[in-house]
Amino acid sequence: MTEEDDPPQDPITLSAYITAQAVSEHFSSPNDRKISIRRLKDIGITKAYVEFYRGGLALPHGILSETRDSLEGEGITAAGGIATTYGEGFTAQSTGGSHWVCFSSEVTRSNLADAMRTGARAFDTIIIDDFMCTDCECDLCIEGKGDRDWSEFRRDLLVRFASECLIGPAKDENPKVQLIIKYPQWYDRFHVYGYDVKRESEIFDLVWVGTEIRDPRVDYVHQYQAFSNYAYISSLAGQKVAGAWFDHLWCYPDIYLEQAYQSVLAGAPELVLFSYSPAKYDSLNPNTSALIEQKDRLDHLRSAIAGTKHMGIEAYKPANSDPGRETYLFDYLGMLGLPVLVTASRPRTSSIILSEHSLADADIESYALNPPAGTCIMATPGFLDGVAPEVLECFGLSDEPVGRKSFFTYRFDVRGRTELAEENVIFNSFLRPESAEVAAKALSDRSYPILTLNRHDDSKYIATSLQTFGHEPYHGSPSVTTAEPVSLVHLPEAFVNAMRAEIMAPLGITLKAPAKIGLYLYSFPGSDKPCAAVVENFNDQDASIMLETGLPLQPELKGSRSLRNGRKLEIELPGRELELLSVYEIP
Ligand SMILES: [Zn+2]
Q1: Which of 161, 258, 328, 376 pairs with 75 at a CA distance of 20 to 30 A?
Q2: Which tens digit of pLDDT belongs to each residue from 517-533?
Q3: What is the 237 CA–ligand 1 centroid distance (Å)?
Q4: CATH H superfamily, domain 12-306
């Protein structure tokens, strides 16, 4: 990328989110406001969302307008915010308990509509925090549901609630008001609890993406999920997506910063930092200080990818599709160094991933039988179990393509060589090839094929037995994030190199690196060659990385030790670090 190609780019906006409770506690008196606003300015905040309702606390117009005016007087853009949560006497609690509410309840509907009118009187922009979802099964909801399944009923209910109780009242009060829907990060569970990204994004003015990944050892959510979620929501909401949102929950500095990096790599121009407290918004807070220290780097990254588009392997998740036993699989494939782009549209890239999600597309079989010439399709057990024998023939698999068996192992056979993983990897299935070549096997009580290859007409068909887990729809764990630890990130380097080599071949890109390396590719519109790449090491240890794109690359951020520049770039990347690799012109 040359300098004249680099359009000037506004720096990333850092925004505060101030909950209603924090507004009440820290912004009520002129003196408290002055201290709090100085705190915001000290860490580089230039925009603040002032919440007017959460958990039963509805703030009156006075405190909202005074806070707004004080913020704007100090050069901070002020906007409003609401969390449609349970508050005694204000909203009816969902039968599932905790913060979620029943949106069939007339009490919920009318009080939240009133709160929106109050908010819209004070602000021209309002963001809706991610509590617009429910697990309520009260009598009213059962009656309202009728013949629909819970997913369909809740999605219909929430779209109607948003339109009648949020958007309508706010726009009646203030026709200029811009309303933002903020989605959570748990994209594979949205449909279960009433989020409908397609329809909701159509009725809201702007869209925000939750990129809260937190500590993978606590919530089992891995870093790539933030990027997956941003890509998926962008594929449905397009240009309306205007920012990301993450928090301090279960965070230490590396992971807090990784939330910011994933957001910016995905394209976010604004980062909302949930949520204001004097302790969190302080340069002595380890998470906040890590973010401030890296702000120039984040701006540099943003500027380097300005005007480009993402490049990679499209993974197909039709709108509202269920993942079956492959919940959040795309995140783990991303953690293995595949440049996965989750999309709700039929994939158009030369390499694609078809998982159980894609079975929601009624014509997926004819697509898999006749992909554009040269396409490489990688399929998962959930997909293979759901398609007709003609499709399985393309993969060179038997009519019963997937054997269901739970086993774990650290021993693998990759192209005839024994390779060891550092920890056990759990499998729930294996492949049954007929004519396919077996590229890798897991070695347990016997050897189980886990990666097979087949050519059919002009296309390459890869099958893999990599899977995650399923939530029992509606009756199992109510967890919205990850149900259990996923061990795929422990796959040995030889296996992930072999898998990448096969599926990335049509992209003309080779990555040799261990697991838990993220690869992000950018190209100029109209080009199928990358103009920039980012590699991120999610391991705590250093990693040796080789990246070959056919174009000369050089590291830009000085985050790595360069061993060899050029068409075959080699770097040593420290643990929890990332590097921007730019294409340079050969003189
Ligand atoms: Zn209900």
Answers
A1: 258
A2: 999 999 999 998 999 99
A3: 28
A4: Glycosidases (3.20.20.80)
